[in-house]
Amino acid sequence: MKGGIFLVEDDLDVLEYYRFLLTVEGYDIWGADTDGEAAISRFQAAEQLPDAVILDHRLPGCNGDTVAMKLLERDPDVCIIYLTADDAGIQMAKEIGIQRLKRKPCDNERLIRNLREGIGERHRKLARRS
Hints:
Largest sheet: 5 strands, parallel
CATH topology: Rossmann fold
Distance between the termini: 22 Å
Number of helices: 5
Shape: globular
CATH architecture: 3-Layer(aba) Sandwich
């Protein structure tokens, strides 16, 4: 497998599409949530963390920016790919420090390339600390 991915997306059709796409590409789906608070709880309770998170901006429970901040507190090296359809989401993600921002709808090839690059960067950071 190429890495564990956590999906956080409130649109079930989009969530299932990402699950299918990423599985076909060889990624392991670590987990999936449709609610921001549930995503935070799952991530906080996990013994083993995913390599990357595909995170929607607008979520029930709490928005993606809140989810991102909590995830980064637990694992500052996790690759977050932040997906949004509006400018406010992009601005919030930039303020948090998220580097991988994508506008919805996101091109599959760009999404996969960003995952590959982000996971590679995460692994290099972790290796330097070892």
